[in-house]
Amino acid sequence: MKKIFNQLLEIPNFVNQKVLNAKVNSAVENFDGEHGVRCYVKTIYQLLALVTLVVMEISLLRAGIAYLTDAHSLIEKAGSVITLVLLMYSAFPIAQVIKSRGETLGGTHNGMISFVFNDFVKTNIRIVGEVLAIAGLFAAFANTLSFLTDHNLFSTGGDLDLLKPLVPVFTFPAETFSTLLNAVGLKSVAEGLQSITGYRMAAAGQFNGDFVWSSQDLLGVVGNYVNVALGLIGMYISLTIYQYLYTIASNLINWAANPSLPISVKNK
Q1: How far apart are the first and last CA of the chain?
Q2: How far apart are CA 188 and CA 185, in angstroms?
Q3: What are the CB-based long-range contacts (under 8 Å, 24+) for 113-116?
Q4: Model pTM?
Q5: What is the residue-level pLDDT of the chain in tens, covering all 268 positions?
Q6: What are the backbone dihedrals phi and psi of residue 248, each rounded to the nearest 5 degrees, phi first?
């Protein structure tokens, strides 16, 4: 009876060895909290890049076909084919940014705290900022072609607001620092910082096809490119601010763990 009972208790181990060959157990037991995390995070970003590429291509292709099948002039359809190809091409550099930046997380780091709160956060700030810049740049290309043909061509310029949920990822360091500046009475400096690092992505222009190019339309096209540059500047400012805030927080935590006062005491 006791032998049968012991055999029943060994059923989980028997099934595990025969069916899974203990691979799951071995993977969990041998998981490295540093090297393992880096490897898996790197793979996640590689998959995310591929998914982003596929989703963007399918979405743009559907939207482009819907535009071309509507009632539009020959100039609008011909120009929209070019803008559609441009926008579909933009998915490749966007996917490459996600992949390459994510792969940098597969390198060495100074422990999990530094990895999560320093490397991981700054990498995502950079990814979002660069993705928005690429999307804005290609939207500016499409808007430029619309300006040259003086027709409203197919463009995602008016749909860039869909990217707004990503903006807080790279603006929160500046917003946090602005809050600190407000707390110490530097309101004007905080407002200036928020103005520099704020989200700017100009929408596509509106053209009526009369082939009368106005200076206002031209300034709108130029503004598209300026906004891309300002977005990148804001991203680098946010990276600098976050590194500064992280260094302060890290130093405070290290001091709290081993407090010491910078006072020299001499025995006389």
Answers
A1: 82
A2: 9
A3: 115/34, 115/37, 115/38
A4: 0.77
A5: 667 656 666 665 655 555 555 555 555 555 555 556 777 888 899 999 999 999 989 989 998 998 888 888 898 899 999 999 999 999 999 999 999 998 888 776 677 788 888 888 899 999 988 998 898 899 889 989 988 888 888 886 544 555 566 667 767 777 777 777 777 777 776 676 666 666 555 556 677 767 778 888 888 888 888 888 888 888 888 899 889 888 988 888 887 777 766 565 555 4
A6: -65, -50
